[in-house]
Amino acid sequence: xxxxxxxxxxxxxxxxxxxxxxxxxxxxxxxxxxxxxxxxxxxxxxxxxxxxxxxxxxxxxxxxxxxxxxxxxxxxxxxxxxxxxxxxxxxxxxxxxxxxxxxxxxxxxxxxxxxxxxxxxxxxxxxxxxxxxxxxxxxxxxxxxxxxxxxxxxxxxxxxxxxxxxxxxxxxxxxxxxxxxxxxxxxxxxxxxxxxxxxxxxxxxxxxxxxxxxxxxxxxxxxxxxxxxxxxxxxxxxxxxxxxxxxxxxxxxxxxxxxxxxxxxxxxxxxxxxxxxxxxxxxxxxxxxxxxxxxxxxxxxxxxxxxxxxxxxxxxxxxxxxxxxxxxxxxxxxxxxxxxxxxxxxxxxxxxxxxxxxxxxxxxxxxxxxxxxxxxxxxxxxxxxxxxxxxxxxxxxxxxxxxxxxxxxxxxxxxxxxxxxxxxxxxxxxxxxxxxxxxxxxxxxxxxxxxxxxxxxxxxxxxxxxxxxxxxxxxxxxxxxxxxxxxxxxxxxxxxxxxxxxxxxxxxxxxxxxxxxxxxxxxxxxxxxxxx
Length: 532
Fold this sequence. Notes:
Helix content is 76%, strand content 0%. It is mainly alpha-helical. The relative contact order is 0.13. Mean pLDDT is 83; it is low at 527-532.
């Protein structure tokens, strides 16, 4: 099997693993109505899909070492395909959660670490930047095209056909994967069950806490949210998860001292180059997820584009991303990884700043085109280097472990990016809306006081049409309704700008944390030692 076919197979798998969430996000209301459930129920299923993937990614990497990564990849595809089939036939929320959240999540936890390792075993170090760049680009493009795919199928056919189509794609991937070569399994046929339980529990608590931070509050509980010992449950979950993960690392060191098989060698995390690559991966996915949260909200809610229209407007990012991810290693094969990574973060920073400056009430969808092109080039530049940096920092036999940790870090980054962007957006929107409403003489004082009480949890991010419908149903005069709608439109822009400003600051943080990224492309040996 040629290397191009191997690369196509692995990129297709990465694309498929990432497509689901972005497709489902634009189909939530339709799926909820079809299954006779609530939007909250579907959002919970989305949360559990992310949770299962993140919790078992490290375990999936070790299972690849025990079974062989190609076999783990194939088993993961079978589980994922069964989950897609179950989801496409789901008649209620329980079946949907079983198929999508658990089966597909478990399949992805086996597939994604295996993809990282199989690239390492099928491509020499000097060819890995392009290979990892294309695989990473496939995942990012799935996030960008998901709204378009979901919008087309939901509008003209049915969301079920997306998952039915995934079954066919999985079958094609399984057939193509037969030609992938790999070294024999590197671990004894034994799994650290205690370590598995601890890593899964710790990661699940951290990720779930982050995912709930927007609705419950990070430290101070929001109105109506649960309270644990006077604080939001989120901070307790994150602290408990972090403590369990620290105990997990101690447990791994203890097993190593007894010459027992471990789930993850803690010495890997002391490798400075690997840590630098993982840190940059974290910020890449944080920024990527934040942008894919904010920009579609602007296009679909503030402007009112359809799901299809929103997806079309996101395509410039996909095209630029693919061009950079594939083109940088081909045109500049000897470029310093650190310089390329820093250029990527600078491009992301510049794109976000331009978007903040362009956002205004009455602006059209065309303002996102150039910023998204620049952001795509930035993400593509990062994708072209980081996968090779992390795997080439250690011996190839550790690629499965690195794959598990890498995908855990990217999942955590994406979760935090979405949660942070959403929290700042709603906070700024609420503050701005209540301020401008208070100062608007067209809004009666009693209505202002009532709004302050009712909107303690935060002002919902809704379109002008939806807000007009709600206010009309409440029997407000037309003049008051128009004033509130106008104030809300201005506050939406304030919220979007605040959210993007946070992402710009985080892009600079990612830039300043690239000092340990190597200045030379990987050679035939690991590029760094394991010094602390």
